[in-house]
Structure prediction request, 202 residues.
Amino acid sequence: MARLTIQFDSCKDPKGYHLDDTRQLVVRNGKKGDELVLCQPLDSSQTLFRIFANEATTPEGVLDFVQKYGPLTIYGNDQGDRVGEVIRRAEIMRDTLKWMAAHPQRRMSHETFFGPGISLHACLEWDRRSRSPQWRFRPTALIDGLWLQFAQAVTRGVQMRTCLHCGDLFEAGLGTGRRLDAKFCSDEHRIAFNSLKRSKEK
Prediction:
């Protein structure tokens, strides 16, 4: 399956975000009506969904993700992102990816729940580079774009692995930059793991 073209423009608060007193919402530091800045978080990473699944599993992790990439929902800049709901989605994504990493040859049951439906706008546009028509998907919110990336990864045959050093999930195989039998998410973690192993053996 060809890689989908996902386009997403959003806005974030240049003053940043914080957890409210209940730790149930990530809210902006600026006031309503303050100027927001444009951000395009999906342009910088085709695997932002993996960062989300690995990191947005605690209130602090959700806050850090929003600080870097902007609000996850269409209400994020006005009402705040609901921490519990964001964590639930990240855990569904993470648990599915971990299952796939542990069972690369097994098929999932048709009852497997991947997550809620998403909202997007799809159109067929002429691509100048390939000189051919191409589907372009514009998600309504960042969380929808992350689910699109996730869906693309699990349907195009990429193998998921768990790094032996940090425990994070990473993609391996054709087009990922990591060998299919890779055991580490990066060369730095491979070196660190082996160095630690040697020091323990002394």
Summary: Residues 83-102 form the longest helix (20 residues). The beta strands are 5-6, 10-12, 17-19, 25-28, 37-39, 81-82, 120-127, 132-139, 159-162, 169-172.
